[in-house]
Amino acid sequence: MSVIIGLFIASILFLISCIHIYWLFGGRWGITGAIPTKDGKPLFAPNPGTTIFVAFALLAAALLILGRIGYLVNIFIPNSFFYYGVWGLTVIFFIRSIGDFKYVGFFKKIKDSKFAYCDTRLHSPICLLISISSLIINLATR
Tens digit of pLDDT for each residue in 9-28? Predict the structure, then answer.
């Protein structure tokens, strides 16, 4: 069961990584729902360096999941690396789903923007799903 969950979560992380690569090369689809705004203005303007960093971080997260479920067997990387890495994903994505209590997460106060709409219905639930799935994978995998 943890293998199926792991493959599903790794696929989601890989897909989100690909979307960031798409944005890096000038893609516009989905960008308005991806950046928090205040009074219609973005709170930050992601630069190419930040976008590629996030894309690689998401790819690394997918690889951690794959390693934990046994799809990346390598004598140079100990199993404990994947074990603790997936615990890190559990915590990071759980914190992201809770959010900053203002613009991001389930407990945000600013709820009248396109980002807030997407965050409530897509971003935060996916983060919680990744967190819970990471927890299950770590507890169920030997």
Answer: 999 999 999 999 999 999 99
Predicted TM-score (pTM) above 0.85 = yes
Three-class secondary structure assignment of the chain: CHHHHHHHHHHHHHHHHHHHHHHHCCCCCCHHHCCCEECCEECCCCCHHHHHHHHHHHHHHHHHHHHHCCCCCCCCCCHHHHHHHHHHHHHHHHHHHHCCCCCCCCCCCCCCCHHHHHHHHHHHHHHHHHHHHHHHHHHHCC
Domain ranges of the chain: 2-140
**Nearest alpha-carbon partner for 137 in 45, 82, 48, 69:** 69
